[in-house]
Amino acid sequence: MHNPQLHADGRLKHLLSIEGLPKRILNDILDTAESFVGVAEREVKKVPLLRGKTVCNIFFENSTRTRTTFEIAAKRLSADVLNLNVSTSSQSKGETILDTVNNLIAMHADMFVVRHNQSGAAHLIAQHVPDHISVINAGDGRHAHPTQGLLDVFTIRKYKPDMHNLRIAIVGDVLHSRVARSEIHALTTLGVPEVRVIAPKTLLPSNVEKLGVQVFHDMRAGLKDVDVVMMLRLQNERMTGAMLPSPQEYFKTYGLTQEKLRLAKPDAIVMHPGPMNRGVEIDSSVADGLQSVILPQVTYGIAVRMAVMAILAGGGQA
Ligand code: CP
Fold first, then answer.
1. Which secondary structure element, helix H or strand E, spans residue 83, and what is its range?
2. Residue 118 maps to which CATH number?
C-alpha cells in the first residue's frame, strides 16, 4: 500500500508518524543526525543545507522544547524561519487551518512544522500542500510525535549503542501519550528485543500488546534489570474523567524514586520527554541525578530535527 510519507522512489516526503516507516529511513535519519551533533561545537554553528528555504513553525498547542529546537535546527541549516503565533493569528477570528496554510504557501513556504491537539492535523495539511512542500508532525493529539521518538532512540543509541541487546521500560500514561506510541514504533522497528510498558490498566490503550510490548502493572517487577527507563508525563489535559485516585497515590505506585530505580541495571539511564511533573511521575533526585539523560535528550533533539529537515529538503550531511 502507498505510504503518504514516502515518494514513489522510497525517499522521505513528509514525516508524519514512525508507524509504517522502514528501518532504512529511521537509520538514515539517525546516521545523518550523528553528522550534525558537532555543528553546535563550531564557532559558526551553521551549515548551508537549507539556505534560501523557508520553514514555518505552526504550533496550535503549547510547546517549549519542540518549537524552540525546531527553530534552532532550521536556523543551523541556514533556513529562514517563520514562527506563527497561533494565539495572536487570525485563527482566533475563525480562519480554518487550511486557509492559514494557504496563506503561508502564498508566502512561498517550503516546509511546515505542525503541532495540533487533534490527531491527524499534520496528515490533513500534508494531503493539502503542493508536491514541493514537506510537512513534519511536531505532535498531533494522542497519535504521534515522530521527532521525539527519533531523538529518544538517538539518545539511547548514544549511551547504549547495541540496540539489539536492550531491555527498555516505558512508564506511565501510555494511553494519552503520542510520545510513547512513536517510541514503541521506533524501538521495535530498530530491533530492540524487549520493550516493556508499565502503567495502571486505566492508562494503557486496549490491545497495547499488539504493538510488540510486554505489559506490567507492577512497577517494581517491570523495572527489574532494564537498561533504559523512559518516564511519561501524566497528561491531565487529555483525561476525560477520574482515571487515577490522586497524584500522591500515583507517585507512590508509579513515580520513579531512587529506591525503585535501584531495581534497574546499575548503569541504566533515565529519560523523560518533558515537560516533567516533579513529584508526580518522577522524583527530583532522579530527574537531576547521575543516571538522568533528560537534558541531553533536548540537545540531541536539535541534531535529529536538523537531520529530518535536511533529508526532506533533498539530503546532505554536515
Ligand atoms: N517533549 C515535548 O514535546 O515537549 P514540548 O511540549 O515542550 O515541545
1. strand 80-85
2. 3.40.50.1370
